[in-house]
Amino acid sequence: MQKRLLFDGRLLQFTINRLCQQLIENHGDFANSVLMGLQPRGIFLAERIRTSLESLLNKKILLGYLDTTFHRDDFRRRDAPIAPHETKVNFVIEGKNVILIDDVLFTGRSVRAALDAMVSFGRPEKVELLTLIDRMYSRDIPVEATYVGRRVNTVRSQRILVELKEQGMPEDNIWIMEKEDEA
């Protein structure tokens, strides 16, 4: 299996710092803005973004975890049921600027499901998307990220593997790799 390193820990931290600076440029002190990490993998990036923002702004930033399981368009099309993850949104998003955070933007279907799930918590003023990896030219749904760590040209036979310390990995690495043949 071929794989190529896109990010190591140093480059990942540099990219997170850059994304936080862009967020501060557009959201100031976050008085009317909140972060929402998409379950399951987007929450790890969202936690890092929040930690960096809190350090830079010297204030608490609201962060929620949003599960989209029951809003997915393939929910009933799978052989085995999808196990839901925890939704943890302890605040109202009515009139707020919401930044949805996920690790990889691929087809756009997860983001569409997140938009459906999010309205249970109010009607936001504005919704933006932050993603670490934007797999360009792969959309099934017209979704575009506002904040992008890196844009990568991929084909369907490839996948992005995100390995973070928070997931139990020894170090942070993000790879692009060929999917294994399903023979």
Automatic annotation (TrEMBL):
UniProt cross-references to InterPro entries, sorted A to Z: PRTase-like, PRTase_dom, PyrR_bifunctional
Molecular-function annotations in GO: uracil phosphoribosyltransferase activity
Pfam families per UniProt: Pribosyltran (PF00156)
EC assignment: 2.4.2.9
Gene3D superfamilies in UniProt: 3.40.50.2020
Keywords on record: Glycosyltransferase, Transferase
Phosphoribosyltransferase domain: residues covered: 9-150
Top-level taxonomic group: Bacteria
Name of the featured protein: Bifunctional pyr operon transcriptional regulator/uracil phosphoribosyltransferase PyrR
